[in-house]
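Encode chain A's predicted structure.
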Amino acid sequence: MLLEARALSVAYGDAPAVWDASLEVDEGEIVSVIGPNGAGKTTLINAIAGMMRWRSGTLHFAGEDMAGVAAHAVCGRGIALVPEGRRLFTRMSVEENLEIGCYVAKARAHRDVSLERVYTLFPILREKRTQLAGLLSGGQQQMVALGRALMARPRIVLLDEPSLGLAPSIVDDMFAIIRAIRDEGVAVLLVEQNVHKALEIADRAYVLEHGRTVASGDPATLMGQPHIREAYLGL
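Encoded structure for chain A:
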């Protein structure tokens, strides 16, 4: 198993945000995490990315216990985060934003190959490589954020709400790209409010409610559960 979280608990001060959350992601797999607003999805993915520390539970990546890994070293282990809201450097060019993704030494050595890979995946970014990132459309900015993560040559990409604020036609393109990334052998852990899309694309999925994992399984099984159909699919 590539990524394995067991009974993770994360809090903001004395306020618990995630407790008893467990999930697994294997090599070359897309795993979706769905749940209502405030369920702790972003907190969970930020903890896995090293942005927050967990109070209890375990997290292993490629067999390594991540508890002792410093936040700045997580990316070097092969975990890349595409945060909610993209968080680009808007006054820097597209290519400068992409290059930030390969600051890790082993990724920097492959800078040219990785950059060509990103431009092949997102041809529009090649055209706009010298343009300020803040002048791009929302969909193009999301492409830059995802491309920046791929520049780190990760084994897994953590995607937090990639469809947020995008037009429906662009959402379809974004999910096609996520599939393409998986087909290249990169695992994907996806947090997404668009439940239909999240389940459609996933090999497996987890439901997070009130900070804990309450259901898991293949998408077809989850969509067959009355609670999931009513609460998340409107059926």
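The first strand starts at residue 3 and ends at 12.
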